[in-house]
Specification:
This protein is mainly alpha-helical. The chain contains eleven helices and three strands, in the order αβααβαααβααααα.
C-alpha cells in the first residue's frame, strides 16, 4: 500500500490564494465573509426544510441535499486555506491532501448528478402535475439523493486511489489553494497520458450527460409552457424553473471551464479562478437564489420567524 511508503507520506505544499500584501489581506477578509455567508445560507436552508412541514416534499428534500453538498464543499477547502494563511504555514499532509481530493471530487460529482435529477423533478411538476405524487414520491426523491451521493463517491474513490499511487517529483508544491486534480496531477513523475484521458472521459460523463438530461427536461418544459393558455400559469412555470436554471448555469459553466480544457491550455491562475467560482461563489449564491426567488421558501422562513417571536 502507498501509505506504507515514506515517499508518499511526505507533505505537500499549497501555494494558496493570497500573499501578505494589503490588497490580498483585504481579499482574504472578503473571502472569509463570503465563506460565512455560504455556511449560514446553506445551514439555514437545511434547517428550514427540516423544520417547516410545508417544505417536506421531494423537491425541497433534493434542495436540502444540494445545500448540504454546498456546505460540505466550502468546508472542505476554505478552512484549510485560511488556517495556512493565518499561521504562515503552507503544508498539508499526504493523508490530508488525499482526503481533501476525495471529498471535493465526491461533492462536485454528486452536485452534477443531483442538479440533473432535479431537472426531472421540475419536468414532472410542470408537464405531469396530476401524476407528480406518483412519479416523484418520497421514495423516488430518496433514491435520487442516494444515487447522487454513492455514484459520485465511487467515482471519486477510484480516481483518488489511482492518483495518489503515482510517485510525485520535486518539492511537491501544489500551485493551488487546495488539492484539486489538475494541480496535483502536474506533480506526477512519468507518463500519465492514459490516466488523464480516462479522467477526461469521466468528466464528459459527469458533466455533459447531466447537461443533456437538463436540456431535454427543459425542452419538454418549454413545449408545455408554450401550450399553456393562462399567462399566470406561464409566469408560475418560469418562476418555478428559473432558480434551478440559474444554479445549473453557474455550476456547470464553472466546472466545464475547470475540467474540459486541454492541459496545454491550463494556467495556475485560470485553475484558481475557476475553482474559486465553483467552490466558493456558487455555494454562496445557491441558497440566496433559491430563497429570494422561491415563494414557498420565503413564506416558510417568515412562518418560522413568526413562530420563534411568539
Amino acid at each position: 500500500m502507498w501509505l506504507g511508503n515514506q515517499t508518499y507520506l511526505a507533505d505537500f505544499i499549497l501555494e494558496g490564494l493570497f500573499d501578505d500584501s494589503p490588497a490580498h489581506l483585504f481579499l482574504f477578509g472578503l473571502t472569509m465573509v463570503v465563506f460565512l455567508v455560504a455556511v449560514s445560507g446553506n445551514t439555514l436552508t437545511i434547517l428550514l426544510i427540516c423544520v417547516d412541514h410545508g417544505l417536506h416534499t421531494p423537491m425541497y428534500f433534493l434542495l436540502s441535499q444540494l445545500s448540504l453538498m454546498d456546505l460540505m464543499h466550502v468546508s472542505t477547502t476554505i478552512p484549510k486555506m485560511a488556517t495556512n494563511y493565518l499561521s504562515g504555514k503552507k503544508s498539508i499532509s499526504s493523508v490530508g491532501c488525499t482526503t481533501q481530493h476525495f471529498l471535493y471530487l465526491s461533492l462536485g460529482g454528486a452536485e452534477c448528478l443531483l442538479l440533473a435529477l432535479m431537472s426531472y423533478d421540475r419536468y414532472v411538476a410542470i408537464c405531469h402535475p396530476l401524476r407528480y405524487t406518483v412519479l416523484m414520491s418520497r421514495k423516488v426523491g430518496l433514491m435520487m439523493a442516494v444515487t447522487s451521493w454513492l455514484g459520485a463517491s465511487l467515482n471519486s474513490l477510484i480516481h483518488t486511489v489511482i492518483l495518489m499511487h503515482f510517485p510525485f517529483c520535486g518539492t511537491r508544491k501544489i500551485h493551488h489553494f487546495y488539492c484539486e486534480y489538475p494541480a496535483v496531477v502536474k506533480l506526477v513523475c512519468g507518463d500519465v497520458t492514459l490516466y488523464e484521458t480516462t479522467v477526461y472521459i469521466c468528466s464528459i460523463v459527469l458533466l455533459l450527460l447531466p447537461i443533456i438530461l437538463v436540456s431535454t427536461s427543459y425542452g419538454f418544459i418549454l413545449h408545455s409552457v408554450i401550450e399553456m393558455r393562462s399567462a399566470g400559469s406561464k409566469r408560475n412555470a418560469f418562476a418555478t424553473c428559473s432558480s434551478h436554471l440559474i444554479v445549473v448555469s453557474l455550476w456547470f459553466g464553472a466546472c466545464i471551464f475547470s475540467y474540459m480544457r486541454p492541459r496545454s491550455q491550463r494556467t495556475p491562475l485560470q485553475d484558481k479562478v475557476g475553482s474559486v467560482f465553483y467552490s466558493i461563489i456558487t455555494p454562496t449564491l445557491n441558497p440566496l437564489i433559491y430563497t429570494l426567488r422561491n415563494k414557498d421558501v420565503a413564506k416558510a422562513l417568515r412562518r418560522v420567524m413568526r413562530r420563534e417571536v411568539t
